[in-house]
Every structure is written in structure tokens, then in C-alpha cells.
Task: structure prediction
Amino acid sequence: MAPAEHAAGTSDEFKKSASSSSLPLLVFQHWSSDNHDGEHEHEHEMLMFSLSQKRLLPAADMEPALVAAGHGGHMCWTTPQGWVLVKSPPDSSSSSSSATSPTWLWNPRTGGKISLPDVEEEHDGIPISCKCLLTYNDVTHPDCFVVLFDYMEPTMWYCKVTAGDGRRRGWRRYTYDVGEYEVPPRTPTKDVVSSIAAVQGELFFIDSAREMCAITLSSACDDDPEFLYFDVSMVRFPGGMCSGRTWLVESDDELFLVCVCFVGFDADNIGAVNVHRMDFSTEAWCRVHDVGDVVFLLEDANMGASCPASPLGLKPNQVYFIKNFMADDGDLCVFDIGLEIQEITQVHQHDDLPLYRKPFWILPPSMLAE
Result:
């Protein structure tokens, strides 16, 4: 049984959805102008830059309550698949008026919602500092899960989106073990899953310079997630470049690796942006110069996504990311994969914008479920 997508609620908080013509959006959530010290927990403001329209959206075009973590007690997590996971307080009037549960998936293209089981009391400590993703692009897939990974602790939460197998649907918390940090502090510290991407139901992450891992989830309550490791050599930095950042990105059911390489160890000096595709037949990364009619959108916490290009008025075969490896600013890097040319677009003119959290993307979900 496919999940039903309900119309958006009529309350002031949730009545406005992001216009399809403005997606994808780059969101800067920051403290309000009179709350620089963060004294008032829920006083946030937002800047939204429309990549399609190449402009900041007026405040009237925004829907801050849906994507502002902590606003009115709501917690929200964006996903590379476009859907936004929303958890509202148990006594929230907006949840009771428009959804059967205070936890749901929100479609920023249509404003529709898919109700999920409530996060039970023992799981209520899910932090906002989590990365969130769906295991399939098509949220109606019978084996699609919504998954959260804690940034700081080796903990994950997951829930099946559909309930068509007759099993009780609910959230599960699982503590995984992928070893310890290779460069340990004074006391051994458990490592956490960093860059991760979902491809056709499996969650892939880089475990080490020699191994990758695929996580498979089971809807059976008593079955733990399965971690299957396989040998893959990590790509090397180009000559003269000794450091960088990496992202795993799913696009058209294929797995890609994006490497932003720094000259020496200077994170302000980007020397190259290389893209590789995983060849699962040989279990090796292959350098590519064309990813098709899509763009790759990268954000903090090593989360990356692909997005249609031409249908949204974007030039294909490009990578977008905020150049905030050292300090937060409004510089958006645009890298052409084929031409190997980088441009910088300043998306806002605010100096020292006091960010509440790192900038993030809101994408149009796949139209398969609409």
C-alpha cells in the first residue's frame, strides 16, 4: 500500500509551500538581528537563494516554520531526495489539524505530506544535528526507509515509509560500530558514518582508504541493519594537493564521489574538483567528465545530492557548494565538470551573518510519487 500524500495544512505555519519555479533553494538560517548572542532559542531568520531564479527570495515567498529547526518546537531535516522530515511538538495545533501524526515527510514542491509513526518517547532525543536521507528516490517504493544519522555519535534512527507488508511500522534506534577514529584522541573514540548516499535501497559510505560499506535495512523489528564491507581503494589527490573534502552523491541510480581538493593544506585555495563514478563490476572509482543533465549540490556534513538541470533552467554538468571550509560567507562555488572551470557567485551581501546552522539545500522531490 503506497503512502497517501495529504494536502498541506491551512495554518499560517504550513499553508505556503516552495514554488516549483524557485527550487532548488540554498537556505541560510541565522539568528535574528536582535538575537546575535542566541539568548532567545527560537528567534531565527532565514535567507533563501533560488538557484533557478538566481536571486534571494522575498520573505513573503518563504516558509520558515517548515525548515527552521526549533521554530515553535518543530524539528526538520532535509534529504538528498528532496522530501523534508518534520517532527512537531506533541501538542502542536498544526500537526493535529493537518496530519494524523506529529511526524511526517513534507514535499516542498507540492506542499503535500506523508504521515509517519510518531517518534516514541524512548527515541525522542533525536538531535537536530543529524543527516537524513531516504533509501529510494521514489518514496512510494514498498521498501523505502527514512534514516537519520547522528553527526557526533554512532547512532542511527530509521522508519519504513509504507506499511504494506502487514508489519507494525515504527521507529527504531540502532547503535552501530564501524571502529574507532584512525587518529584517536587521548581516549579511544568511536567513529561515525560520514559521507553517505542511498542507491536503490542501500546506504553506501566510505569506511577507510581501502574499504567501503553498504548498509541494508530490514522491516523486521528484530533484525539489525546489515553492514556489508567490500574493497575499494580511495582516489588520490592530484599533484600538489594534499587535502580536501569528499562527498558521495547518488544520481540516476549510480554512485558518484566528488572530491574538492585543496592546494597543500589551504582550505581557502581550491585546486581541483574531481568527480568519479563507482564501477560496481570492478569495485573501483572511475574519473568522469560528464554526469548528464544534472547538477550536484553539496552541503556541510558531507551531504550531497543531484538535481535535474535543464527542467529547472540550470546549466547541466556542474557542481555547486558554499566555500565555507574556513569561515562562513555567501560565496557559492560553481564548478563546470567538463570544462574544469570554477566561478564564484556571492548570494548575499551580509557581513558576519550569525548562522544558526550551516547552509543547506531544499530540492524538488522526484515526481514519481506525485
